[in-house]
Specification:
By secondary structure, the chain is an alpha+beta fold. Helix content is about 30%, strand content about 25%.
Length: about 160
């Protein structure tokens, strides 16, 4: 068992089953040593969670949980892209979080912390990243949060 797989087990985290892309795009793309993960919403087993607008129908605490689910889906996508070998992750280079929120909402970073915190819990210092937290007027499927990421990965052994 790899180091990251052991960490997941220690944390009691089970990676969700991921759905195929829902449009004409790739859910991930490996370009050299960079692994790009398409935007993930808080959908688990085909069911959308935390649908709505953060600061209105979704509380900021629920938005944090939604971002955490997005990051869980990101890790599941990385797992699939790397044939199950999460120890190939050198670093999470960048994370971008989009928060479906009204124009006067100001706590986007606190919501996106849900994704950042999970990546650091799983990968340790390799999970620390540069980040953008943005507001959005709407997101796919009415999601409250969407997160994408770029990872630096080692080539296959």
């Amino acid at each position: 068992m790899g180091v990251v797989a052991a960490r997941l087990r220690e944390l009691g985290i089970v990676l969700p089953t991921i759905a195929p892309a829902s449009g004409n795009y790739s859910p991930h793309r490996l370009a050299g040593s960079l692994l790009f993960i398409s935007g993930q919403i808080p959908r688990i087993d085909g069911v959308e969670h935390f649908v709505g607008v953060v600061g209105e129908s979704v509380s900021p605490d629920e938005g944090y949980k939604a971002a955490r689910l997005c990051a869980l889906n990101i890790v599941a996508r990385v797992h699939a892209a790397l044939d199950g070998d999460l120890d190939r992750v050198i670093a999470c280079a960048q994370l971008r979080g989009f928060v479906n929120a009204p124009a006067d909402f100001r706590n986007h970073p606190a919501v996106v912390d849900g994704a950042s915190d999970l990546l650091v819990e799983i990968f340790g210092d390799k999970g620390r990243h540069v980040r953008t937290a943005l507001g959005a007027g709407s997101l796919p499927r009415g999601s409250s949060v969407e997160v994408d990421a770029i990872f630096e990965v080692a080539s296959k052994a």
